[in-house]
Amino acid sequence: MLKPPFEDVVKNYIKLVYFFAKKSLYQQDDVDDIVQETFLKAMSNYKQFTFRSDGELKSWLLTICRHLITDQIRSKKNTISIEQNNIELFDHNDVEDMLDAEITQEKDIEMVKKELLNLKAAEQEIIRLRIVEEMEFKEIAITLASKEAAVKMRFYRALIKLKEALL
To answer: Domain RNA polymerase sigma-70 region, which positions (predicted)?
Structure first.
């Protein structure tokens, strides 16, 4: 695969990185800083980075972003990790896309959203990356610094929990 100019990488992936950061941070200034730092780090290492697919490039960028978010949380002396953070990872559009169903009643949307928030933050993140961001399990594993089999198992267990809670 031919490596695109870095300007194209920024243009093609800035929204993905922005929304990834936005789901983990409260302050808009922090989100903006993380997005900027992500692309600065990526730019400084872009020549050395080799990838075979867009998925590897996406995973690389999100991994950089995730590490920066973790560093930022630590630097603010916040002892809560990203996985333990009680952050709303889903909005109404995410819920509708995730269930791939026609949820038309506001009450139904709220019920699904409530049950999603009852899942662990790490489970919410895996579901969001797989369903909303349409990432492959391999890409998610790279992004989360985990094994692919572990990501698959956590994803399917989270879906089972969600389905059982909704029954």
So the answer is: 10-77
